[in-house]
Design a protein that fits this description.
Blueprint lengths: L2 H26 L5 H4 E5 L4 E4 L4 E6 L5 E5 L2 E12 L8 E8 L8 E7 L8 E7 L8 E4 L9 E7 L3 E6 L2 E7 L15 E8 L19 E15 L23 H13 L1 E4 L19
Antiparallel strand pairs: 1-4, 2-3, 3-14, 4-13, 5-10, 5-14, 6-7, 6-13, 7-8, 8-9, 9-15, 10-11, 11-12
Length: 293
């Protein structure tokens, strides 16, 4: 068998495994209505409930973007939702899904930011991690599918061992707890769940070279299947330190072999920026970048 044949077979197998993960994600979803867990925080007129509150539509036009947030904060757990992003020419727009401690000085934050594109170009998702007020840990991945054609599951798993950002159960980023190396890890401050749709054409697409075409407005993003499982704050103080929480279980303390294989596939084939390899910004490689997954 030739080398190119082996690569082709591996890619076929990987796409099959990813497709199977998408199916499992659809089967396992535990959804609630929007108003059970969330509230509108910005521009109520630009957020519309759909299907009896099981889904919502976010709108961006020249007047305003919009946003929503969870009613509670959480300390560890897993949050996910299905999102269908802006179709067509979405350059200059950002659809964000993130967790944030909502504190002024020493902020913790876990970010998904979906960066709009010109028609025909891939959609990029940027992730970032803020811990104890320190951020600037951006990574970008070009999605391997059209995220505006259908809903896909985006999730953040956060426990004492690591933070895992996943798309359709495929991990695209792992941020390990490296406190032993002096690297801050978010574990003291509860975080709320937020989402916004907004204009950011000064940086979002090709570093700000591509501007919003307002003739294509309004822009719409859609959400459904909201799922939060974690320790609410305020709530029982022992919850966050309870090793019996499913997200703290042995199977969630590191990626299993299949998840690790998917993770490597994403990073080898779809990663377009990693702060860890940006020698202009970081002449000395940050210590957390030396630890793999």
């Amino acid at each position: 068998m030739t080398h190119s044949s082996r690569i082709s077979i591996r890619n076929i197998v990987m796409h099959f495994l990813i497709g199977f993960a998408v199916l499992l994600a659809k089967i396992d979803a535990k959804s609630t209505t929007f108003l059970q867990d969330f509230r509108v925080t910005w521009s109520d007129s630009h957020i519309k409930q759909l299907d009896g509150g099981m889904g919502i539509q976010l709108l961006l036009d020249q007047n305003s973007g919009c946003g929503f947030a969870s009613k509670s904060k959480y300390l560890f757990g897993r949050v996910s939702m299905k999102i269908k992003l802006i179709p067509g020419d979405s350059a200059g727009t950002v659809t964000a899904f993130y967790m944030n401690s909502d504190t002024d000085n020493v902020r913790d934050e876990l970010d998904f930011e979906f960066l709009g594109n010109r028609t025909g170009q891939p959609y990029s998702v940027q992730t970032n991690v803020y811990a104890h007020g320190k951020g600037d840990r951006e990574q970008r991945v070009n999605l391997w599918f059209d995220p505006a054609a259908d809903f896909h599951v985006y999730s953040i798993l956060w426990n004492h061992h690591h933070v895992v950002f996943s798309v359709d159960e495929v991990p695209i980023r792992v941020y390990k707890n490296n406190e032993a190396k002096g690297v801050p890890f978010p574990k003291f401050q509860p975080m709320g769940v937020f989402s916004t749709l907004w204009e950011a054409d000064d940086w979002a697409t090709r570093g700000g070279l591509e501007k919003i075409d307002w003739s294509k407005a309004p822009f719409y993003a859609y959400y459904k299947d909201f799922d939060i499982e974690g320790c609410p704050v305020p709530g029982p103080s022992v919850c966050a330190s309870n090793p019996a929480n499913w997200w703290e279980g042995t199977g969630y303390q590191q990626l299993d072999s299949i998840a690790a294989r998917r993770y490597r596939w994403v990073r080898m084939n779809h990663m377009v920026y990693d702060y860890c390899t940006d020698k202009h910004r970081y002449p000395i490689t940050p210590p957390e970048c030396m630890d793999g997954i």
